[in-house]
């Protein structure tokens, strides 16, 4: 399998990335905390990177230089705001330690508070937790000169109750901790206490939220015979004691998992990370899938999907290789000079791939584009609605593009006016016995 080996991490400008799972592919992102601020969905992940040349042995595992922030624009475009904080800008931090593990950001009043762990230069602990404030969800943040006194550990998870009282959950180990925060959100109001009621085993990745008067405390939990899972417990009070309820996500063979839960546009979502873009579980990529509650408030287990969340609309890439269903065709890492990601390939006669939830809006799209590569000269692929025999809305003839890794963008007319959210199916056609017709990277509706 081809692995992604080059990434431009030091971005100077805002970037826009179209993606299903993983959410972005232009850099590695882990530990995503999703938040909705003023109706907009933001994600605050950590970032993984390759160690600087000559220092590879120092960082056989995580190498984490700092934080970007992202927001969801339109149906499935993630806007990258660039660096929120770089490790050497932490006022109290040790330099060049690449120790910027999972962060969080929360809003109280009209102020955004960004919390992050770093290695302190005073050597007092493995990690301390710092905070910065801003009037804007993506900064610039004004960083406090010192870490939060009385708190030592990783993975800050913030919660603000309906009465505006703030709580800081944190830690990684056999125990997790919680401390109430002072009004200023920068100091603890009482010594941290153990989060009571959690099952035995290694735990980290605290994330708390409230729904229908129930306090949910969610955490990454390592079972000796299963590895990382995401578990949850409930309580009647943010300080507990909690009652363990079970797993939100089973172990997905991902080295670590780290998550957050958010309600956006009426739908609950679980954000987490996985590593299939890099092939190495310390170079992770943030993902998201829908999450559902049962009537009694318990959470249905989330199965990771390629399709993820979001509804690509006019002008946004429909990453067809992040399918809901596939029949006959396969997906593989995209080759040639395409940006990192995947394509649909092995597109034999009558193979098909289905992608749910494309947003045709008010029906103003008149054309559809496709990013293709082909090493042969016969065949076509059709876009249909709902199923492989559903209404035909577009046909792309296939031409030789210079080879299976020579990419070009082609376009064709939409032959029907289509509106609203639709499930589309791409059906590949040629002679029976064709080995493959085309490599297909993405589709895009245009007006
Ligand atoms: O990303 C570094 C560490 O790995 C996080 O702090 C943990 O939660 C785990 O995801």
What does this structure look like?
The protein has 447 residues and is mainly beta. The chain has two domains: 2-290, Tachylectin-2, Chain A; 317-446, Galactose-binding domain-like (Jelly Rolls). It has strands at residues 15-18, 28-37, 40-48, 66-73, 77-86, 104-108, 111-118, 128-134, 142-143, 157-160, 166-170, 177-180, 193-194, 203-211, 214-223, 227-235, 243-249, 260-264, 267-274, 285-290, 317-318, 325-327, 330-333, 342-345, 352-359, 367-374, 380-385, 392-397, 403-413, 421-429, 439-446. Strand 10 (157-160) and strand 11 (166-170) form a beta hairpin. The radius of gyration is 23 Å and the shape is elongated. The structure holds beta-L-arabinofuranose. Beta-L-arabinofuranose is lined by residues 30-31, 46, 62, 101-102, 154-155, 204-205, 220, 256, 258. Residues 30-31, 46, 62, 101-102, 154-155, 204-205, 220, 256, 258 line the site of beta-L-arabinofuranose.
Q: How would you sum up this structure in a few lines?
A:
The chain is an all-beta fold and 447 residues long. The chain has strands at residues 15-18, 28-37, 40-48, 66-73, 77-86, 104-108, 111-118, 128-134, 142-143, 157-160, 166-170, 177-180, 193-194, 203-211, 214-223, 227-235, 243-249, 260-264, 267-274, 285-290, 317-318, 325-327, 330-333, 342-345, 352-359, 367-374, 380-385, 392-397, 403-413, 421-429, 439-446. The strands form 8 sheets. The protein has a 5-stranded antiparallel β-sheet, with no helix packed on it.
């Amino acid at each position: 399998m081809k692995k992604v080996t080059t990434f431009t991490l030091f971005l100077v400008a805002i970037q826009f990335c179209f993606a299903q799972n993983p959410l972005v592919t232009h850099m590695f992102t882990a530990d995503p905390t999703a938040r909705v601020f003023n109706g907009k969905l933001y994600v605050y992940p950590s970032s993984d990177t390759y160690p600087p040349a000559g220092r590879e042995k120092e960082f056989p595992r995580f190498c984490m230089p700092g934080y970007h922030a992202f927001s969801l624009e339109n149906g499935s475009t993630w806007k990258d705001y660039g660096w929120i904080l770089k490790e050497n800008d932490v006022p109290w931090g040790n330099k060049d330690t690449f120790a910027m593990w999972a962060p969080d950001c929360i809003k109280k009043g009209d102020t955004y508070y960004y919390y992050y762990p770093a290695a302190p230069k005073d050597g007092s602990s493995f990690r301390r937790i710092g905070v910065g404030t801003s009037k804007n969800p993506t900064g610039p943040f004004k960083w406090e000169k010192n870490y939060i006194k009385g708190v030592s550990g990783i993975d800050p998870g913030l919660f603000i109750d309906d009465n505006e009282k703030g709580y800081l959950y944190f830690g990684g180990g056999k125990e997790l901790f919680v401390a109430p925060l002072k009004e200023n959100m920068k100091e603890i109001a009482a010594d941290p206490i153990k989060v009571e009621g959690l099952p035995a085993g290694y735990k980290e990745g605290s994330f708390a939220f409230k729904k229908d008067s129930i306090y949910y405390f969610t955490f990454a939990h390592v079972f000796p015979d299963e590895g990382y899972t995401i578990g949850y417990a409930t309580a009647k009070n943010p300080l507990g004691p909690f009652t363990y309820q079970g797993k939100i996500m089973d172990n997905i063979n991902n080295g670590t998992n780290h998550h957050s839960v958010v309600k956006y546009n009426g739908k609950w979502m679980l954000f987490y990370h996985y590593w299939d873009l890099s092939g190495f579980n310390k170079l992770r990529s943030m993902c998201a899938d829908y999450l559902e509650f049962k009537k009694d408030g318990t959470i249905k287990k989330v199965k990771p999907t390629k399709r993820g969340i979001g509804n690509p609309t006019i002008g946004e890439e429909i990453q067809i290789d992040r399918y809901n269903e596939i029949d006959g065709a396969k997906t593989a890492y995209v080759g040639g000079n395409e940006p990192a990601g995947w394509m649909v390939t092995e597109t034999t006669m009558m193979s098909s791939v289905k992608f749910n939830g494309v947003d045709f809006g008010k029906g103003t799209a008149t054309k559809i584009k496709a990013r293709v590569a082909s090493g042969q000269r016969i065949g076509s692929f059709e876009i249909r609605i709902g199923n492989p025999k559903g209404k035909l809305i577009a046909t792309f003839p296939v031409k030789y593009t210079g080879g299976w890794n020579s990419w070009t963008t082609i376009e064709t007319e939409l032959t029907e006016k289509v509106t609203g959210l639709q499930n589309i199916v791409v059906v590949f056609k040629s002679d029976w016995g064709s080995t493959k017709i085309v490599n297909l990277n993405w589709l895009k509706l245009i007006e």
